[in-house]
User: What shape does this take?
Amino acid sequence: MNTKNNKLLIFACRLPDHRMERKKLHLAEDIVYITLAAVLAGADTWETIAGFGKAKKDFFKEVLSLKNGIPSHDTFNRFFAGLAPGEFEKQFMLWVQELCEANQGVVSIDGKTIRGSRKSGNKSAIHMVSAFAESNNMVLGQVKTAEKSNEITAIPELLKLLDIEGCIVTIDAMGCQTKIAQAIIERKADYALAVKENQKELYDNILDTFRFVSKENVTSFEDTDAGHGRVETRKCTVTGDLSHITKPDHWEKLQTIVRIDSERYTKTTGATQNETRYYISSIAPDPKALEKVIRSHWGIENKLHWHLDVSFGEDGSRKRDRNAAENYSVILRMALNLVANEKSTKNSVKTKRMKAGWDNEYLKLLLDF
Assistant: This one.
């Protein structure tokens, strides 16, 4: 195993060690490395992580010092419970930057609640706001909020940490705020923000725009997808006419109003569903380009949130000791980045994780990415 240029070990060594000197029986990099390897191979509790470490002790000896053997499950728990999440997330973002080329295309931002993190007596579980780069197929970073309503303040904090120059940032209606649009432009990126009735005046202005705008100021593009037993047709209609928008200059560099009309036909039931959604964007009124941008936003649901719940069981995790849930969520996103970008096989995420548990060479391949 190439240890000198192993980005994971370099990442682990950069983490500040929060423990008292007399209690450091195991190196921080050993704990982080074993944890990620175990999670890649399917472990999901501190007990199974420690058990995987013991079962693969010879494997880990190839790269780690292990002066005092494999840490106990209590050691894993205490380490991640005490680790400062902000620093861990900062190093995670640096690690991602080193793994992939400069971000380009669509960067989607959305929140997800870790349901199992709710402690006894607390009303709210931890809510994480993540950024996902479609072109790199990578989670770029995340910040924690107390609850979903706090996404409005969390998103600008996340934007400050990301290298998104030249990208197009997509956010659902919660993030449709003038300050968020401004923050995106200040980062030299563009935006496509969903609009719902939480922005009542803007929403009504958009309805008026498409009701009264002249035909020569509107262009459309239609696309159809068929698969998984359904046929979906999407029509993207755009206009650069902002005359019906009250104070358009409040939205930094606003150029385009967007309407998406979608029709989904399910073959098995014969049912048809229709939906209309609205967006504002700082990019030029190109319906084909904007339809692709808006459709790309769902990558954060399909390629991130779905896998975190279904493939990694994040919602079922019961790690509640201090910072453990937040730090473990970083480990899961690191593991998903590694598995999703391993291209030697076209197997599912679940199958790749099983293979990592069986095959040491494949596990090395993942850890050396």
Notes: The radius of gyration is 23 Å. The chain has a mean pLDDT of 86. The first strand starts at residue 106 and ends at 114. Strands lie at 106-114, 126-133, 138-145, 168-171, 190-195, 218-227, 230-239, 256-266, 272-281.
